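Whiteboard transcription, Tuesday session. T.W. wrote the structure tokens on the left side:
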């Protein structure tokens, strides 16, 4: 039995070693991490088939330039250009839109005739919250010294007071806060560990309703929630929102210390109580399951507004564009409750170009 047990352990060790070697050569899951460090994949071009979201193109042309961003190469030193880097999660990266149809690319096209030497790039990373944005700022953005950054934040920060799995994967350090965190941070130094965490993060995003998916808005079920329940759920956001505000403050301070002008954006969505202009559906009681909790559009909007109001509270320190207020709530612009389709990306670019022309001189 002892010999069999030793043979089993040796077999497992060999299998894990082979998996580690293979994943270090090619890892289809962990795109932004390498042995626990945030790595932006540079000089990538790919075309992938879209079989999930019917209203989007069947083929997605996705590329990243030499900086690891989505967008054109800079024509000169970034510090010499009217440079704008867009930072956010999936609603910035627009992974299921081809390069030329994302809102950051369209924004650059709309501004180029009005602002000389304009250069707009997309540094969005699907799944990142403000924990990941801070890391991106510190490790990449401040070294490039752009004139402006656009921060579209909030949706991935809902009920998040500490780095979640995806953000923790991007921290190149060992955590000693607990035995569990220590073990996870050690595992994150391996490709096997980071891949497992990546899949776990995708699972959690799905539970929160943040995964990209095709939604049939017409046939969504309805649910009515008691006012006391709604009020209690909103009250529970207090500490999360406070921590979110602290991270926003840190990013604003970091930008100003490096002569970068931050522009904060509130997070638009289809949450809320209204009649959808495209379908005539009353959206308020539409049923959503997030984190295995029963919610509806009314509650989701009240929760999202807590985070958007925190963004608005920084208007005395930085420029704030209230995209949540300016973006129409209309299913013609979204393929789910938070992600824009091609028409929505055009609308976002239109709104932001008009607002940025008031800010950039």
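and on the right, the sequence the group agreed on:
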């Amino acid at each position: 039995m002892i010999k069999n047990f030793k043979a089993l352990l040796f077999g497992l060790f060999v299998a894990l070693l082979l998996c580690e070697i293979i994943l270090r050569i090619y890892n289809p899951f962990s795109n932004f991490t390498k042995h626990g460090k945030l790595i932006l994949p540079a000089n990538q071009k790919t075309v992938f088939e879209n079989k999930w979201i019917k209203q989007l193109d069947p083929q997605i042309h996705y590329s990243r330039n030499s900086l690891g961003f989505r967008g054109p190469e800079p024509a000169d030193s970034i510090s010499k250009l009217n440079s704008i880097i867009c930072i956010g999660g999936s609603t910035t990266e627009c992974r299921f839109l081809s390069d030329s149809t994302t809102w950051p690319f369209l924004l650059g096209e709309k501004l180029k005739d009005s602002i000389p030497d304009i250069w707009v790039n997309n540094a969005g990373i699907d799944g990142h919250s403000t924990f990941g944005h801070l890391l991106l700022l510190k490790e990449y953005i401040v070294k490039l010294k752009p004139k402006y950054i656009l921060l579209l934040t909030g949706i991935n920060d809902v009920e998040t007071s500490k780095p979640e799995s995806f953000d923790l994967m991007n921290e190149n350090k060992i955590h000693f806060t607990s035995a569990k965190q220590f073990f996870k941070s050690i595992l994150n130094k391996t490709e096997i560990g980071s891949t497992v965490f990546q899949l776990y993060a995708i699972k959690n995003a799905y539970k929160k309703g943040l995964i990209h998916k095709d939604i049939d808005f017409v046939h969504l079920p309805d649910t009515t929630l008691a006012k006391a329940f709604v009020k209690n759920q909103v009250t529970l956001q207090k500490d999360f929102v406070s921590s979110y505000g602290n991270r926003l403050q840190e990013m604003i301070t970091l930008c100003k210390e490096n002569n970068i002008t931050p522009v904060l954006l509130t997070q638009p969505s289809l949450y809320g109580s209204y009649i959808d202009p495209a379908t005539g559906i009353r959206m308020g009681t539409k049923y959503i399951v997030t984190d295995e909790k029963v919610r509806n559009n009314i509650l989701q909007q009240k929760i999202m507004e807590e985070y958007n109001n925190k963004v608005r509270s920084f208007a005395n320190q930085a420029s704030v564009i209230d995209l949540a207020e300016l973006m129409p709530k209309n299913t013609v612009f979204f393929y789910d409750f938070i992600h824009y389709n091609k028409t929505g990306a055009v609308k976002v670019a239109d709104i932001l170009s008009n607002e940025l022309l008031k800010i950039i001189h």
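Someone added at the bottom: Confidence is low (pLDDT under 50) at residues 165-170.
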